[in-house]
Amino acid sequence: MDTLGTLSIFVHAAETRNFTRTAQRLGLSASAIAKSIARLEDRMGIRLFHRSTRNVMLTHEGEMLLESCRRIIEELEMIEERFTRSGKAPSGRLRVIAQIPSAYLAPVLRKFIVAFPEIELDIEWGTGAAGLIESGFDVAICPGLDTDSRLMSKHLGYSRICIAGAASYFERCGTPATPQDLAHHVCIHLKDAGKLIRWPLGLSESDAGEPPVSMAVSMLGALVNLVECGSGIACLPEFAIERQLKDGSMRRVLGDHVSGSYQCVAVWPSSRHMATKIRAFVDFVANNLFSEANGDEA
């Protein structure tokens, strides 16, 4: 059991790549983590980490051991769940980070806590999957962009994308008729992991350049709020502005020039075996988040 405890510490350290974060997650001191890793290295006669003052990186031998340890720990978790949780509802604290507007996710969360009262949800609205493992979150809900290879994902649904702005903005600044007209407008962009998300306008090399970047934000909810108050034009998933489009406070433009869709995914730390609380949450969100907009396709 002491060996299993040491291997568990090694896995956490390998995932966070930081002994201090590992210590905080496990309720130990950073020195205890370092000593445990050192004892494991001595016992196996190999070096597991390249250490620096800020973080640690796995050696080739460390990568190989990590895969083996994950299989061992996952098998133990499956055995424990089979004999101790059989017939019991999913339970425990579930830390979730979300990158979609709270107003849209809230109804789904309300239904979830009714369906799974034994799960304690801890929700934070942030910038998606970046740093998911290091921050100790269990699941992230974010756009379907490339993610860390240490993460697994599940498609939750999609929404059409549009270029939109507030009616008050168009009354004040005019309405663009072509993508080239955007050069004369305030264009607000969304970014993920520090990179701007391109507008799907299908511009060719002979066309004018990309829309100007008047402002960039990292949260979809903030982008919706900026556009709604008339600050500028943005490329937005229609689900996020459904109410505003219906009541006329916001309008689509350049509909013939926009293609593509907003893909939403759930991501979680890579594992062959999902904890029951994670599986329950991911499946529930997949079945409910886009059900109204996309019917059975969500």
Automatic annotation (TrEMBL):
Q: Where are the transmembrane segments?
A: none
UniProt KW Cell wall biogenesis/degradation keyword: no
UniProt xrefs under InterPro entries: LysR-type_TF_proteobact-type, LysR_HTH_N, LysR_subst-bd, WH-like_DNA-bd_sf, WH_DNA-bd_sf
Please give the Gene3D superfamilies that the UniProt record associates with this protein: 3.40.190.290, Winged helix-like DNA-binding domain superfamily/Winged helix DNA-binding domain (1.10.10.10)
Concerning PROSITE patterns, the annotation shows: HTH_LYSR (PS50931)
Q: Which UniProt keywords apply?
A: DNA-binding, Transcription, Transcription regulation
Q: Where is the HTH lysR-type domain?
A: 1-59
Family affiliation: Belongs to the LysR transcriptional regulatory family.
Which named protein is this?
LysR family transcriptional regulator
Write down the species: Paraburkholderia youngii
